[in-house]
């Protein structure tokens, strides 16, 4: 997740994991309606805060150029929807005698499918577009050059798996598991890595965002104090791990391969996010809110298959990189079958998935 310019300021990361691209049925753009729905749930909250709190005239004076950056944009249409919603909200604040121009920077790491991103740019867009490859854990823009930063469904990707989780001699070795839901020590190691990464993200944005500028984060998370194994997002990842172990027992995959595989994702609680932001002091929390996704009690076979495709959309590249392209279809077919039998998505004892809506204002510090 970095380029050479980021080497001194970014956490180390050995591999890049872009969302599944191409034209096939499993690509991220075709299976990211979940993320689109998440933005739809919070765009009104963002617009309201822009209307009440964003001092547009002060931010862009003496010029008339408003700069927006989407950190971790991927390549599907969701980034275009979100950017346009932000622009419309900002336009409603502008002085009609001094019309603003907008410049939007689409950022993701260098392995992202920027070709698809720019090939599908809206033809009627009201902004100038540019791509910025590189890790958002390091600096990417000149100081005090951005007025609004968006990051949607990206901050939960940690830059690397904690070393001790992969060390066979460590008491934190995550043998037979691919996630942290079943072990407090593993969860603590993941949480520490998330905190380091999030602090790096905030430090870089603090340099780039003008005082009074906004940052909207949409982060898949967990409810404060929740039983992790009873949280949908974590239970889903544990189910994928269980599916892989079943395949290992059948001799379809190497058990040692499963033991050495961990998903580089952490779902924070709002308490953890607040603690990290307040510790640094670069941004003021204007609003933070847990938004729960309602559970659907009656799910059709098609509904479950669609959800499995959503999981494959974000997980395929990580799985393929570790286990090889030849076995990917088998892995996700087994996972889908296990998801069908589990009843997990309609289990009333499982807490619904939670999105954390976080709106920050850059302070003068």
From TrEMBL:
<keyword id="KW-0460">Magnesium</keyword>
<keyword id="KW-0808">Transferase</keyword>
<protein>
    <recommendedName>
        <fullName>S-adenosylmethionine-dependent methyltransferase At5g38100</fullName>
    </recommendedName>
</protein>
<keyword id="KW-0479">Metal-binding</keyword>
<dbReference type="GO" id="GO:0008168">
    <property type="term" value="F:methyltransferase activity"/>
</dbReference>
<dbReference type="InterPro" id="IPR029063">
    <property type="entry name" value="SAM-dependent_MTases_sf"/>
</dbReference>
<dbReference type="GO" id="GO:0032259">
    <property type="term" value="P:methylation"/>
</dbReference>
<dbReference type="GO" id="GO:0046872">
    <property type="term" value="F:metal ion binding"/>
</dbReference>
<dbReference type="InterPro" id="IPR042086">
    <property type="entry name" value="MeTrfase_capping"/>
</dbReference>
<dbReference type="Pfam" id="PF03492">
    <property type="entry name" value="Methyltransf_7"/>
</dbReference>
<dbReference type="InterPro" id="IPR005299">
    <property type="entry name" value="MeTrfase_7"/>
</dbReference>
<keyword id="KW-0489">Methyltransferase</keyword>
